[in-house]
Design brief:
4-stranded mixed β-sheet, Glutaredoxin, alpha+beta, 4 strands, Glutathione S-transferase Yfyf (Class Pi), Chain A, domain 2, about 5% strand, homodimer
Chain lengths: ~220, ~220
């Protein structure tokens, strides 16, 4: 398997955690988003949307795109260990929590948005940083609101990690390592993040531990 | 069943189409997003994120949130007619296409973003409209890129409607009815939208046909 990704990409991080939890190995190909490599023709032939991650399967078939869709594919084809609960209501809750990060939070802070804010809107750096920090924390606060529910356990949903934890951790990486959010308002999210970081599948692919981060 | 939604909400529209395709009836409760009703305490008790849609099930259990998670729940509990293909690679493609709209496109144009652009960033109306139009069309162009793939048929994936078509149609409603995009660069997306609109489940809940739109 081959994963097109980038050390700083939180969506890439999600897929790497899911692969790790399922004990799968991949070859990584770095697409440097900060240098705009995603817009080169050879990568756009792989993914016309010009974003990472993209997973190329050993079993053939078209490239897989969108981190949530990739995680669902992994779950359907390699069910153990599961990253979704068995019951439909539990699956809906886990997917809902995951989507708060993956759909409502993260798309607001991607390179294309940062570029538009700088080049089209001519917003200065403090204003851009405030946006990045604000929306990253808003998503975490929305998740925190749901973590008061009785289904929350050691992790977001019960006592084993799910897609919700994977997306939560990506969001916390953004909040803490990139955008310097004050995370004091999301203690349950932070407790779960710390719990996840005890697991190699979560901690080893942490963006700040990747070679690209060291070189940056 | 009870659906908290709003006539103008594209995420609410998605869920209504999915319910319609599966022949399900719901009672609708309008949460006026333009008047900020989503921030009232009684609704935040239903959904702490203060967004719609939220689906309350007859079978009990916690409120379902996030349109993609709600559609997955409906698919798991009422499998016929299916809104996902059977094969994992096809399911991944459909979910990926759906997420381009639901995750990468739509979150950039929601009321909370429009409010922040106006009140925090003090951007004038033409600048805000340009943002809304730009990102709505960008998502459609990304989907259009994938629609060149051989899996595309009468609909986004083969010849029956899926979650991808549902999310595509919401995105086209945004592009055409709300943000006045020039959609000439996305002919396949528009062809599929027109095909979907021949189906009652897609056309009846169209936002512009709702009582709220008439009154607006």
């Amino acid at each position: 398997m081959k994963l097109y990704g980038f050390w700083r990409s939180l969506a890439t991080y999600r897929v790497k955690v899911a692969l790790g939890l399922k004990g799968m190995k991949v070859d990584e190909v770095s697409i440097d988003l900060l240098k705009g490599m995603q817009h080169q023709a050879d990568f756009k032939a792989v993914n016309p949307q010009a974003v990472v991650p993209v997973l190329i399967l050993d079993e053939g078939g078209p490239p897989l795109f969108q981190s949530m869709a990739i995680m669902e594919y992994l779950e359907e084809t390699r069910p153990q260990p599961a990253i979704l609960p068995k019951d439909p209501a539990g699956r809906a809750r886990v997917r809902g929590l995951a989507l708060i990060a993956a759909a409502d939070g993260h798309p607001l802070v991607t390179p294309r948005i940062r570029g538009y804010m700088e080049k089209e809107l001519k917003l200065d750096e403090p204003t851009r940083n405030k946006w990045l920090s604000h929306w990253t924390l808003e998503a975490l606060k929305a998740i925190e609101g749901h973590l008061k529910e009785k289904e929350t356990g050691k992790f977001c949903h019960g006592d084993s990690p799910t897609m919700a934890d994977i997306c939560l951790c990506g969001q916390v990486v953004g909040a803490t390592a990139y955008f310097k959010c004050d995370v004091s308002s999301v203690p349950t999210a932070m407790r779960i993040y710390e719990e996840c970081m005890k697991i190699d599948a979560f901690s080893k692919p942490h963006p700040m531990k990747q070679p690209g981060a060291q070189a940056h």
